[in-house]
Amino acid sequence: MSTPLVHAFFVGRAIAEVVYERLETGVTEALSELGKFDAEQRENLRQFVDEVVERAQREEAIATQASTTTTIVPTDLQTGGDLQATIDDLRAEIAELRSELQRYRTRSSQ
Questions:
Q1: For 1-110, where are the E strands, in sequence order?
Q2: Owning domain of residue 97
Q3: Do 66 and 86 lie in a common domain?
Q4: Spatial separation of the C-alpha atoms in residues 23 and 36, rounded to whole Å
Q5: What percent of the chain lies above the pLDDT cut of 70?
């Protein structure tokens, strides 16, 4: 009777050791994958930030260069036209742009 009990003890112990080793391997692999994922996401975020900053600097340089070298004067003012008519035209263009922007925002939010 002693032999089956001893055998059962060692079988149970072996099962516990195998389960522990597999659990340890699984947790180690999961943590490794999590570390890899975290590193990849940090690298992706760094690349994204670099790209955004680069584009912003490029756009800023273009805008700065354009604003210092180009001054837009309406044709009416260049030829001595009616100032009030020019102002009315500009207001109409602004209203049109606002309505177009509102349509764009409405389409984007849907």
A1: none
A2: 72-110
A3: no
A4: 20
A5: 85
